[in-house]
Design a protein that fits this description.
Strand content: 5-15%
Structural class: mainly alpha
Radius of gyration: 21 Å
Largest sheet: 3 strands, mixed
Oligomer: single chain
Shape: globular
Helix content: 55-70%
Strand order of the largest sheet: 1-2-8
Distance between the termini: 36 Å
Length: 356
């Protein structure tokens, strides 16, 4: 009931609450961090433009007109075919005039792929720390590197406010083809259906499952054969990428279980990282030279970076099985996921780990 009441509050009141929380939590987090988060979100809220009004204006460039129309169609599909809580989400547009909306910092111990969690008043504990400024994110990352942690910083183009605000279409995603835009919207809306504070892997794996299933259905509904073929090839490459990285994550986990001197552990860790890069080059040739993941592999491939892939994919097989048991009925699927989401953590973990 509290979350429902909070969603109905005026935007300015929500802003004051966010800033007020930063003061109340001064003992465990800095006021400056929560203040930058509140200011960043408010800049998005107050920068919104109504998409329908933009479409009705006479001076909108054709590429934007086509993209905005596509987003409205995707919204309709999400609501009518996927039964997602679309509400007023993605009816507005914000031009951020920067490459990413936020930059997330991930950290993990030198000899563990288990990511560090940070806890927040609304989202609960998550495996990253987000900043609306790249410089601030890099500064925070350096602090954790100095403490001996593996650290990875990545730009994020969109996120869900979990119903706290109506989410907008951001300029950071406009360059994506429509099928990728559809997948992103399905993923972010999924967080409003089921979200467990403190369980990043549950939340992201569920959203990834719904993203894939939603995209599959969206492509079936589309009559653009060429686009469908491109989307399916992209999806296949993504799956192979996930399988490759996950298999090496498991190898790193096995290594860290060995009782080795620190220096030897570091040397073997570095060797595994080199093997992962080499296997990626082999895979890339098998993909016809597609270099879409080159930028990801240009990074350190450390434990923090590996954790970003596992968080979004580890429980996907479980959710696929739940969907299959529901015979593809999304309403029944959602009901079962929501039932599991409210279980106590130990009971929930037993259930989600039941599928290999």
């Amino acid at each position: 009931m509290l979350s429902i009441c909070l969603k109905t509050l005026p935007i300015t009141v929500k802003a004051l609450i966010l800033v007020g929380l930063s003061v109340l939590l001064i003992s465990c987090e800095t006021v400056s961090y929560y203040t930058q988060a509140a200011r960043g979100q408010m800049a998005i809220v107050f920068g919104r433009q109504d998409i329908q009004r933009l479409l009705e204006s006479g001076d909108l460039p054709n590429d934007l007109r086509e993209k905005f129309s596509a987003v409205l169609d995707i919204r309709d599909f999400a609501a009518e075919e996927l039964l997602l809580p679309v509400g007023d989400n993605y009816q507005t547009y914000v031009d951020l005039e920067r490459e990413h909306v936020v930059w997330n910092v991930f950290a993990a111990p030198e000899f563990s792929t288990e990511a560090v969690n940070w806890c927040y008043p609304i989202a609960g504990c998550v495996a990253y720390r987000g900043y609306f400024s790249e410089a601030a994110a890099r500064k925070f990352a350096v602090e954790w590197e100095r403490r001996g942690f593996d650290v990875y910083t990545g730009g994020v183009d969109a996120y869900s406010t979990l119903g706290w605000f109506e989410d907008s279409l951001l300029s950071t995603v406009l360059s994506r083809p429509d099928y990728q835009l559809a997948a992103l919207i399905f993923h972010e809306l999924a967080h409003q259906l089921a979200y467990v504070p403190g369980d990043t892997t549950f939340n992201e794996s569920f959203a990834t499952t719904l993203e894939r299933e939603g995209l599959r259905r969206w492509l079936l509904d589309s009559d653009q054969a060429a686009t469908n073929a491109i989307a399916r090839r992209s999806r296949e490459r993504q799956q192979r990428f996930v399988e490759l990285v996950t298999s090496y994550r498991d190898k790193f986990d096995s290594l860290y279980q060995e009782k080795l001197p620190a220096q030897e552990m570091r040397e073997r860790k570095q060797a595994l990282q080199q093997q992962l890069r080499a296997d990626y080059e082999i895979s890339k040739r098998q993909w016809g030279g597609d270099d879409g993941y080159d930028s990801w592999f240009s990074n350190p491939l450390n434990n923090a970076q590996l954790s970003t892939v596992s968080s979004y994919n580890d429980l996907v097989p479980f959710f696929i099985e739940v969907l299959a048991q529901a015979d593809g009925d999304l309403e029944a699927f959602y009901a079962e996921v929501q039932r599991i989401a409210v279980l106590n953590p130990k009971r929930r973990d037993l259930i989600v780990q039941s599928v290999d």
